[in-house]
Amino acid sequence: MPKIKTNRSAAKRLKTTKKGKIKRWHAFSGHIKTKKGPKKRRKLSSSTFIDKADEKKFKKLIPYA
After folding, report:
1. What is the pLDDT of residues 2-25, one digit of tens each?
2. CA atoms within 13 A on the CB side of 48
3. Is 12 contained in some domain?
């Protein structure tokens, strides 16, 4: 059985925790922050976890992480 190639773009954007959950960062936090309120900016700066429904899909993209 050949090795599975890791999707490099996904590997750069996602990290796995010790328990196997996949961690991601919020979108829309890069620029144009003047329109966004302080609460919104604070929330976007933190990381979150991938939804349970999408977990299987993302584990295929980063099999060795």
Report:
1. 999 999 999 999 999 999 999 999
2. 9
3. yes
Does residue 1 lie within any of the structural domains?
no
* Overall number of domains in the chain: 1
Place of tokens 């796995």: 16
> Distance of alpha carbon 12 from its chain centroid, rounded?
9
Which residues on adjacent β-strands are paired with residue 22?
A: 16
Report the predicted TM-score, pTM, of the whole model to 2 decimal places: 0.79
Q: What is the DSSP letter of 31?
A: S
Q: Which CATH number does the domain housing residue 17 bear?
A: 4.10.410.60
Cα-Cα-Cα-Cα dihedral sign, residues 25, 27, 29, 31: positive
